[in-house]
Amino acid sequence: MTETSWPLWEVFIRTRNGGSHRHVGSLHAVDATMALHHARDAYARRGEGVSIWVVPSAAITASDPGDRDLLFEPAASKIYRHPTFYEVPDDVGHM
Amino acid sequence: MLGSSSALFIYLLRLGDNALMLGHRLSEWCGHAPVLEEDLALANMGLDLIGQARSFLTYAGEVEGKGRGEDALAYLREAGEYRNILLVELPRGDFAFTMVRQLLYAGLTQRLFEALAASRDSALSGIAAKGARELAYHVRHAAEWTIRLGDGTEESHRRTQLALDELWPYTGEMLEIDEVEHTLIEQHIAVDPAHVRPGWEQTLGEVIRQATLQLPNQSWMQSGGRVGRHTEHLGHILSELQYLQRTYPDAKW
Known about the structure:
Chain A is α+β, with helices and mostly antiparallel strands. Chain A has helices spanning 32-43, 68-72; strands at residues 8-14, 22-28, 51-56. Chain B has one domain (4-215, 223-247): Ferritin, core subunit, four-helix bundle (Ferritin).
């Protein structure tokens, strides 16, 4: 294996129609088209999906782990934000 | 006059041996590809071809009717009994050579298989239809690489053009037909590659143009593999392919 400076891509796969794309991993590729090829070979060769997205890893803006308390801790005490107090009529089925 | 079942046997060997040898050549990249992602891609394509070889050779054994299965045909024939074209037995070369060869082989073979899907022989038609879908991806992958390598750096352009120059004289064999094909074409079992040639040349020409490469201006073509006259490279492949079966006959694990 030689050193490579190919850009990194994040791969998202939708496993079936109607589902949503889920992050499955990342890979290196020279450009978007080749990233799709590699994603197909690396992550969808056992029939895992019906659709693939690739996104340049550099295009993702991530939250800072150091901000965890600031961003997420205040939510922990606010159970009223969970809609768990409603009675769902049976006819509605699975939500 | 060649009987139609012996013609079909040879035809299936030709198709199956092409897939077997090229699949083996691709498998040689396993652990050696330039990057991990491409290692997977080459192994996947190699496995597609080995799968096609298994189907063709299994069916060939049934047509022959002498009790030879896929393993006997793949591993226990002498070099002169293999019917693959010379193109697929050439050593794997560098990455450009591998990709250009894949483009040349898969480009024509995909179209041939699509046409064979309408064969009057339903077993052959089934194998070809499945193979055509697999080869469509090989064509796309090899074309994308050929374009990037040809229209890449000075070094990648040089190597890709060199690969095309070296491989081109071996493409003529893909278009050859003899008594075997004539017999089967008459019965609507085989397909004349001349029918798919114009479409192949057109799409190939488009890739070559985008890759800023030149098709060699040469009409003389290599020949012989389809009738069992091979390059010295086939013996080396067979020594590796056949070693296990010959040393431990009928080995199972």
